Amino acid sequence: MKLSSLCAAAGIAFDGPDANITGFAIDHRKVAPGTVFGAFRGARFNGEDFIAAAIEAGAVAVVAAPDAAVEGAVHFSDAEPRRLFARLAAPFFTPVPDTLVAVTGTNGKTSTVELTRQLWRMAGQRAASIGTLGITTSDESVSTGLTTPDIATFLANLTGLAREGVTHVAYEASSHGLSQYRIEGPRVSAGAFTNLSRDHLDYHATMEDYFAAKMRLFDEVVVDGGAAVVWADDAWSEKAIGHVRARGLQLYTVGGKGEDIRLLGRAPGGLGQKLEIEHAGTTRVIDLPLIGAYQAANALVAAGLVLATGGDADVTFDAMKRLVTVRGRLERAAISPVGSPVYVDYAHTPDALAAAIDALRPHVAGRLIVVFGAGGDRDKGKRPEMGRAASEGADIAIVTDDNPRGEAPAAIRKMVLEGMSTMIAEGRAREIGDRREAIGSAIAEAQAGDIVLVAGKGHEQGQIIGSGDTARVLPFDDVTVAREMAGTLGGK
Ligand SMILES: CC(=O)N[C@H]1[C@@H](OP(=O)(O)OP(=O)(O)OC[C@H]2O[C@@H](n3ccc(=O)[nH]c3=O)[C@H](O)[C@@H]2O)O[C@H](CO)[C@@H](O)[C@@H]1O[C@H](C)C(=O)N[C@@H](C)C(=O)N[C@H](CCC(=O)O)C(=O)O
Ligand SMILES: Nc1ncnc2c1ncn2[C@@H]1O[C@H](COP(=O)(O)OP(=O)(O)OP(=O)(O)O)[C@@H](O)[C@H]1O
Ligand SMILES: N[C@H](CCC[C@H](N)C(=O)O)C(=O)O
Ligand SMILES: [Mg+2]
After folding, report:
1. 165-208 residue pLDDT tens
2. Which stretches make up the Mur ligase N-terminal catalytic domain (predicted)?
3. What value does the mean pLDDT of the chain take?
4. Which of 141, 182, 266, 392 has the largest count of CB atoms under 10 Å?
5. CATH for 3-78?
6. What's domain 331-488's superfamily in CATH?
7. Half-sphere exposure of 317 (CA within 13 A, CB side)
8. Which of 29, 40, 202 to mutate to test the pocket of ligand 1 (most atoms within 8 A of CB)?
């Protein structure tokens, strides 16, 4: 494809020498002859330092800040070079699926995109989801490493899916992905907001900054005249709705305070819950086979996205009773020797931990035993708050390790325990650094009627120890370990 045609398609002025474009890269080591190179100032490197090497390797154009030195290639300059790069790259990656929707929020993104994919599939659409679990289609799931990989990978993935015949994609818009323009370019029909609570305050200066990063989804990413689905019951919902209105998107609110899908009632049952909802003047009862208020919220936002992009209400609400558990989100992993279920959940924020505990509480006849920790080299302030959530919600908590990365594991556990003084005083808190031992201890301690919750890692397949060149990922899967420990003790 010619550079001049790309610029014309992207609405970018161009009068330089034309060239045949073969690809896009943001890492100079991936540049081949004919590549457009994006040189960005990052947290660890300044991409501008690699411009000369990229041109040497065959880059014909460079997208970079106005003051970057570019010699021997066309310089596309912008104060936000990442945004310009996304705009220029988008027309190169065709085809893309017709219906794209993106989900943002602190918790529930992965669940919501995956539930949206399931609802579409049950309605007969060729659908995929992209996010923390990788790329999921009805045939397979392929891991990508990050929730939102770099923009060139993201766009290439969309094109790959479209070539396989996928027409509907729901993807996760993390705040990192949004603030780094890693997930935009093509036409996004609808966006959704799930909730906002403390996370990533190592990366964003304040909650307001964190929220603003997420709101780029409604302010800029969703197409003009597109739709926005907002979970209405969160403390930040009103503000999110303000952004939707200011942009003039079609607003769909969902939840107890929702206007479009109103949650009238929720009754937990054995392996799921009954939801009573009102939509377009009709009241419906849905047997949702997933437990917990938080899963009901995600499933309803997913339904909102399907309806907002043309789905049929009867088909969509009917399909909700056939939704299946999302990997690592309140996944029932094992049964202890005395019959206590062991659940694995990806709760790694204070709010998520409280939500996971809340979800299980109605099912607990005896005690709720929680095993959890906090990640290293991530937001430190959330640690005591996670401790508080466990202290307030659980009967017994075992603080253990969860990806210590470059930090001393004992120091992380100490910060978590700082939020647990009540529990410690009452003798209900334990500290067992080794995660396998902690899980085994919880299962061994469980008596009939108790439930064990292993939180923080969900679908993750490893324990990350060390950082930089010395980082190691030791294979670790909470579900497998829970099964092994239960098995050793005589459970299953
Ligand atoms: C803090 C953060 O988000 N960093 C991401 C960001 O890095 P950066 O822009 O700061 O890059 P950098 O390493 O400083 O390098 C600057 C530029 O020089 C280029 N470079 C660098 C070295 C070189 O030899 N040659 C070269 O060209 C790099 O490609 C880059 O464009 O852009 C990179 C490329 O897209 C990402 O790999 C990297 O993710 C790091 C590994 C990471 O851990 N990110 C996590 C925190 C993250 O993004 N997580 C969210 C999930 C959050 C959630 O769901 O809650 C996610 O969306 O996955
Ligand atoms: N709607 C919700 N409200 C509160 N907590 C939730 C909600 N949805 C999920 N959670 C909690 O957050 C955890 C992670 O859920 P999920 O993976 O869907 O979120 P995410 O936004 O993709 O997270 P990440 O930012 O790490 O990718 C769940 O295991 C659960 O404990
Ligand atoms: N996307 C999240 C995942 C955290 C998962 C938890 N297991 C941890 O390592 O802290 C992050 O990068 O902050
Ligand atoms: Mg996710």
Report:
1. 999 999 999 999 999 999 999 999 999 999 998 787 777 788 99
2. 21-74
3. 96
4. 182
5. 3.40.1390.10
6. Mur ligase, C-terminal domain (3.90.190.20)
7. 17
8. 40
